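Quarterly update from the structural biology core.
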Amino acid sequence: MTSKISLRHSFWYLLLTLFFFNCNKDEITEGTPDLENEKADIAVKWADMTLYTARYSFFNTPTYCSRALGYIGLTMYESIVHGSSSYHSMSGQLNALTLPLPVTSDKYNWPLALNASQRSILKLFYPLNQNSPANVHQKIDSLYNAIYTEKSMDISNPVITRSVEWGEAIALAIYNWSLSDGGDKGFTKNFDPTYIFPSGSSYWKPPVRGQTISMYPLHPHWGTNRTFVIANSTIAVPSIVPYSTDPASDYFKLYKAVYDKDRVLTQEEMEIAAWWGDDPTETFSPPGHSYAMATIAIKKIDAGLLKAAEAYAKTGIAVADAFINCWKAKVVYFNERPSTFVKANIDANWVQFWPEPPFPAFPSGHSIQSAAAAIALANVFGNNFSFTDHSHEGKRRYDDPRFLNLRYPARSFNSFWEAAVECAYSRFLGGIHTQQDNIAGQKQGEIVGKNVNDLHWKN
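Predicted structure, tokenized:
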């Protein structure tokens, strides 16, 4: 009799043990309700892959990259936001955006969803074509597979499948939303040969020494694109100092200041100009530099996955809307760069220090996007967040004898805004922009960033 009772007890004990083991496994490995303890490692890896993809896809422009980062960062955020009780979706908040909802009664593994969403959205925005090396997509797949293997251990197949499908569905929904913004496949139409732009005094002329030589401005219609944030579509175009060749005029003084500074550049000032140059044919472009700063901050404080996704989403949206507003103003004024004004009115033999990009000057794209990103990042990490930027440390550039002695040392800052101010000033040091361009850009960028922060991000 005793042995039968023991056997029964053992049987029920085994069933209860299996039941609680499965419940515990289901809660801990499959369900991460608030994601509070999930590290940001996979978000950082995907951000690094995003910048690698932008750099090596052979259609990297600051305009297209800014747009892509807006959608890629948003996709990262939306793929996991419903796993949190603290954060709020951007669905219904961004311009004409409506996204699907997960089934609340189902369990999802949010890291797996993020992993799937990033692979999908990256391939959609940087598709393979005759100008893209196949190894870019191979690297994307390799990263996806490595994270999938790591994060799917001890998780049931239904949860794995559901999580991957959710990530892919969010990526596709956001991509489909992007198709109507005016910038779809922008890399196929960088320059419009039918575009008619004004000619004459004060107007931009194609550069003879530049990053990319073109007789037409880059993406002349970009300013008409749909912004992510509705409020960013109503920002007023800044005013500009009236054109004048009178040496006593404010306009002349602005350009003369660029010329005078170029003649006395110090080694450090040349290195500042080079550090922030971010030629898209050489680097991940200016908006990519801002996205990289989000990574720097995330790594410094060992941020969790939710904070990382918030940082990438805010930064991406900020730089995307910044470039739309910048291009809107550029086309309004079609303002010349220092190279043409100085040669025509001050020194016919002058050559600015840094190669200029193929589009009008006012306002500065570097200034507006770095300011917008700084405001967004400060909202996530704080106003007095010190950091060191290693983005271009040790880099060399050999296409001009004047660049051979540039050392590219890492640069340290006490805040994101301090970095944005230096980024803007670097364009003055490079001889590419007047301070008018930089100041106007910073003011616009500050508004863009604040509008991004004012969205309902947290519950």
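The chain has a mean pLDDT of 91.
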